[in-house]
Prior knowledge:
Helix content: 10-25%
Largest sheet: 6 strands, antiparallel
Distance between the termini: 49 Å
Protein name: Cupin type-2 domain-containing protein
Number of strands: 11
Organism: Deinococcus roseus
Amino acid sequence: MNHLHARIIRAHQGQTINSHLEDVQLKLTGIDTDGSYTLGLVTTQVGGSIPPHLHHREDELLILLQGELECLTSAGWQTAHPGDVVFFPSGVMHAYRNVSTTPSKHWVIANPAGVEAFYQQLAPLLNPIPSLSHLSTLSRDYGIEFMGALEDQ
């Protein structure tokens, strides 16, 4: 018998992890999906960015709702607009930055689940943002590898 439950997650529900450049509201975690995927709603402030990195375990899918994100893909830097879907497969370096004049908002789906534990552990350390070397040390246990500062790309 399936132990998962059908339900509605309200707009205000979900653990929110705040940093001064980006907020992630976790809507579904591995506990909710039996490890299948994690779903989060991400708000990235103007100028906010995630440095180049790759996931050894999960694929990421971004669905842009508002704003514009410049995304580092296998084809180089490309701009995503509302309604666009961005796919970052595991093992492939990627990054993004908000190039809008307003905060951007996107859904993120990570498959399989598990990356939420990294965000939850990192949350208390995000204000101010940790150094890249500190971030790299913390991320190793979660199969995430940071490749350098965004400005290096």
